[in-house]
Sequence to fold (264 residues):
Amino acid sequence: MAERENARTLLGARRRGWPAAGALWPPLVLGVVLVLLWWAVTASGAVGRVVLPEPVDVVTTLVELFQTGDLLPAIGATFSAAGLGGLLGVAIGLPLAWLLVHGRWAGRAVEPYVAASQAVPAIAIAPLLVLWVGYGLPAIAVLCALLVFFPVVVATTLGLRTLDPEVVAAARVDGASGWRLLRHIEAPLALPAILSGLRNGVTLAVTGAVVGEFVMGGKGLGLLLTAQRDRSDTAGLFATLLVLCALATAAYAVVRLIERRTEI
Fold:
């Protein structure tokens, strides 16, 4: 029994720790294959550099962006907008999910509007936010929040609705209710679902920040993409898009790491 318990403890520690090295190989191998295919297509001359730049051109442009000092401030501005919008979306989404689950009449009244909010494209909401909030960071953060809160609401609602009713009933018998029930029973048990929604939300926050910068101004990567588009800098566009992908992947990985550390 002791050996079995030690094995479970070790397995739990591995799950909560950093991903195994073997888990990193598949995406790395796929990335190398895609870059080689990219290089083969461009080297063959089948596609012009204006349409598809060579990988070395993209890397060179990326280095130049770092050296000129244009890239790091843009990354900081986009990350700030996405982070602020993500926090705002979570702050709205978590209480709203609890209301949908526990507020019988309020949940029925609000849920159709939550679903309908996703029918309007983000780029269509942006001009209205400019009129209501103005240009710059506040409006971009609100746009990010609108994109983040929906996956958080859906995942959290699912997590709360699928809790073991016997566990909840036993907690109520012991006197847990309201805030105590949420803190000690509902939130810990629903945490995997909440983090799953947050993983989707953080990537959408980066998308919302860039879309907002396209329409509502700002000093982030969206502005850099606009300038590169206007001068037909394809290599620059690819370089900036790679940075965006890296930013979204890093945010996703952080949430995934937290999720692994909370697994039992």
